[in-house]
Design goal:
Distance between the termini: 50 Å
Helix content: 40-55%
Radius of gyration: 26 Å
Number of strands: 19
Number of helices: 20
Length: about 575
């Protein structure tokens, strides 16, 4: 981080004090210094998990802090005690002498004007840098806050965030030419996407159940520890259904809410903040709304509070006619935050049996959530060696438990007489959040590299149909934006023109854009934070220039999709 920018940013903060009456300086300095320490601490924790600072928009989700307090606590490290020391030191200005009496030979207004001038000059480098970024063609896109911080410093980065947020709030939206470019992108996507393909319409009129599984990461599928399968049921689904092994986690700061937004809307999440809070008033045209137009009844269920991630507002907006949360599902065994997955899925089965067919049901499991610091002893079924990380061991136990809960759910569908007329799909909502350090690297027998980090950002996607012949692994590259188009493909519903994603069918030119600007296709991986290019399957490094077309395609898709969400353009894209 540039020291000069840190100094300039500090002078910019001090400039705010100079504009106040001098008698207020000591107390104002105390408040400003204390808030700066708190913000720096919050940035540190946020960087460790999300790789970005706490933006103004991210604070909209601060009301959920109590629910994720364990995750926050797990991110703290012993060296963070220095923030407590700094917080204590920030109180010192409160007891400083009255500054306005130190230089009696200068008129008060001259003292303030002189200090303001000096601070303005000292702060100019960071102001000029932020102004330059805002004027850049790609200034509205921040793929890597870490890279921006190296350029602007932490306070300059917060100034950029504030300026961009203000610009968005008071701006007039997109120009006509920009809107036309976005329409052209979606029109081109529609022209180059096959309308039909293998298995199109094979399950027209069938029920659809889509499960979003908390923190289910691809590396657990097929994983064995001491001869024990971590997910034996999911492993069996690779033989009795379709297993999409190269689907990337495309979530951003909205985490689980991003996962469901992407899967249901086939759009990318925002660059900063969660759609669940920032754009809850958008005119969504999501998968449940599409299926309702085809005569489906729709329902969603989640064994936690209805207000978490604003789901009680969003789910009706997505097109769900009925939603069941903890209040509707009733009390029972709790693991982590909400009903244990086994209890939750058992409670949902009667709702499915009563639903008008054909139905679309979206089920959100909760299981064990980050930081995975506890798991009930009575539910542990794996005999694990010392993995060097108790959280990783708890995570594997949780995956084994949810695997058994999913097996029981499939059996329950069969007993309810629904299996013969129901397509069941499931996917991981986002990666678990484990760093590629010794415990995970040893477990998976891999070594750290940028391309290995990229490869680990995959989540499994399964589709199980009543047709026993529709099985096998599909290794076409895709992302969570491709989930809804793939399901519609099987149900015989043409891909909506406003969807970013495309059906994951064999032979398709695979592609996935990730929120930080990284991307993948069937040949290459591009890792934006490390500026690294590699072969997809061998992970062997390639020249950076080899990935330039991929990088440009990623930027184009993210820009178009984010503009649609930011400016509520779906009706414009979809037409009448």
């Amino acid at each position: 981080m540039p020291v000069g920018m840190l100094w300039a940013g500090g002078c910019l903060l001090s400039l705010a004090l100079i504009l106040l009456p001098a008698r207020w300086w000591p107390r104002a300095a105390t408040v400003l210094a204390f808030l700066a320490v708190v913000l720096a601490f919050a940035d540190t924790l946020y960087l460790r998990f999300f790789g970005s600072i706490v933006s103004l928009l991210a604070w909209q989700g601060a009301g959920q802090l109590g629910q994720v307090w364990d995750s926050v606590r797990s991110l703290a490290k012993p060296q963070d005690l220095w923030f407590a020391v700094l917080g204590f030191c920030s109180l010192f200005p409160w007891f400083w002498p009255r500054w306005q009496e130190q230089w009696p030979f200068w008129p008060r207004f001259l003292r303030q004007a002189a200090l303001a001038g000096v601070l303005w000059v000292a702060a100019w480098p960071v102001l000029a840098a932020v102004r330059g970024v805002l004027r850049e063609t790609q200034g509205a896109q921040v793929f890597s806050y870490t890279m921006r911080m190296q350029e602007l410093g932490v306070w300059g980065l917060h100034l950029l965030d504030a300026a961009r947020t203000w610009k968005e709030a008071v701006g007039e939206g997109l120009a006509r030419e920009e809107k036309q470019q976005i329409r052209d992108f979606f029109a081109q996507r529609a022209r180059t996407t096959p309308a039909f393909g293998p298995a199109f319409g094979r399950f027209s009129g069938y029920n659809l159940v889509l499960l979003q599984v908390e923190s289910l990461q691809n590396f657990v599928v097929g994983l064995e520890v001491n001869g024990q399968e971590v997910t034996p049921f999911l492993n069996s689904l690779r033989r009795r259904g379709l297993y999409f092994s190269w689907v990337f986690d495309q979530t951003n700061q909205g985490r689980s809410s991003d996962g469901e937004f992407i899967a249901l809307n086939s759009q990318h999440p925002l660059g900063e903040g969660a759609v669940a809070f920032r754009r809850a008033g958008n005119r969504f045209m999501a998968l449940p709304k599409v299926l309702r137009s085809r005569g489906y009844s729709t329902l969603s269920a989640h064994a936690f509070e209805r207000g978490f991630w604003n789901r009680a507002v969003l789910h009706p907006a997505y097109g769900f006619e009925r939603s069941f949360f903890r209040r509707e599902l009733g009390p029972g065994e709790v693991i982590g935050w909400g009903l244990a997955d086994g209890v939750f899925l058992e409670r949902v089965l009667p709702k499915l049996k009563e639903a008008r067919q054909p139905f679309f049901a979206f089920l959100i499991t909760l299981g064990l959530h980050h930081p995975f610091d506890e798991f009930p002893e009575g539910r542990k079924s794996l005999k694990l060696p010392d993995l060097g990380d108790p959280a990783l061991a708890n995570y594997l136990q949780a995956m084994r438990y949810v695997d058994g809960a999913l097996a029981a759910f499939f059996e329950g569908l069969a007993r309810a007489g629904l299996a013969d007329r129901t397509v069941v799909a499931l996917y991981g909502d986002h990666e678990a959040g484990f760093p590629l350090q010794a415990p995970l690297a040893n477990l998976l027998r891999i070594q750290w590299s940028p391309q290995q980090l990229m490869a680990l950002r995959r989540v499994p996607f399964f589709i199980v149909t009543p047709d026993a012949s529709l099985t096998g692994e599909v290794d076409e590259v895709g992302g969570q934006v491709d989930i809804a188009p793939t399901l519609l493909h099987l149900l015989g519903v043409p891909r909506p023109s406003w969807f970013v994603g495309r059906a994951l069918i064999p032979g398709r030119q695979g592609f996935a854009a990730l929120p930080d600007g990284s991307g993948a296709d069937n040949q290459l991986l591009w890792v934006e934070p490390f500026q690294a290019c590699a072969e997809r399957l061998s992970l062997q490094g390639r020249e950076k220039s080899a990935c330039q077309p991929l990088r440009e395609a990623v930027a184009a898709e993210l820009a178009a999709s984010r503009a649609v969400v930011e400016h509520d353009l779906l009706p414009d894209i979809a037409g009448p």
